[in-house]
Amino acid sequence: MxxxxxxxAAALELRRHNAxxxxxxxxxxxxxxxxxxxxxxxxxxxxxxxxxAVSGGKDSxxxxxxxxxxxxxxxxxxLDLGIFDYSKESKAKCEAFAASRGQTLxxxxxxxxxxxxxPVVQQATRRPTCSACGLSKRYLMNRAALQHGYPVVATGxxxxxxxxxxFGSVMHWQTDALPRQSPALASTHPKLxxxxxxxxxxxxxxxxxxxxxxxxxxxxxxxxxxMGANSIAHKQVLDRLEEASPGSKHNFLFGFLEKARPAFxxxxxxxxxxxxxxxxxxxxxxxxxxxxxxxxKRRTTG
Length: 302
Ligand code: Q46
Ligand code: ZN
Ligand code: ZN
Prior knowledge:
The protein has 302 residues and is an alpha/beta fold. 50% of the residues lie in helices and 12% in strands. It is built from eleven helices and ten strands. The strands form three sheets. Strands 5-4-3-6-8-7 form a six-stranded mixed beta sheet, sandwiched between helices. The chain has a two-stranded antiparallel sheet with strand order 1-2. The protein starts with 11 loop residues before the first strand and ends with a helix. The mean pLDDT is 94.
């Protein structure tokens, strides 16, 4: 296998691109894909401060690395979910990464904001762990960005994540989720920051290869609650399709973004209000996060 660029020995074959690259040209390819994503969706400018949500995993740290190397103004945001050793180790990875690059890392503790760490929230609410966790993460990301003055939050979602989420939404025909599936969500209210996913053009394997080649120390273990998550089953189905026909995931996601998403976008009309309890944006009187925190408080102190 030879590198498409220089003809040297290739280290990685990208079947969906029908190409192979040597390590330096793979890094170049990776950075170009991020630049293309940023450009195509006008994710942010060089004048803006970007908050990068980091979990300690390969994707978010690879993203932060690319943006720092490219000269963007960034800071990290680590959400401490309080999930046993997983949270301790992932936090340590983020802190080490930030320190080695002289970057600021903001830390938000879910236990402080919601009243209990995620495993206790799960027991108290009896809701699927990932639903309370996802809700808390989205809320805290937006709140932290507003508090610290960042107009945009970037997350490390890759092509595999996005294709799996889309697959899940389509399987259950969650038509309200479809218009929100996008590499870049604009701010639709002064209290909502933009949310962007600059890695959506890159597969999980590619972000792993990038992190490895860049010597990024990341947490390899997954969150213990990820094991039963539906998204894993969806990923496995898509992996089999990709294996049989390289490019399937890309075609599924990109076809949706180009051809189908606009149709769902038109039917989304929601009035945005401010939560009477915390002031963050919501569609009702009290936001879902405040309701969750209230329930946790009642169930853990009662
Ligand atoms: S951190 Fe939270 Fe994920 Fe763990 S509990 Fe589920 S949503 S799996 S990305
Ligand atoms: Zn090469
Ligand atoms: Zn609220």
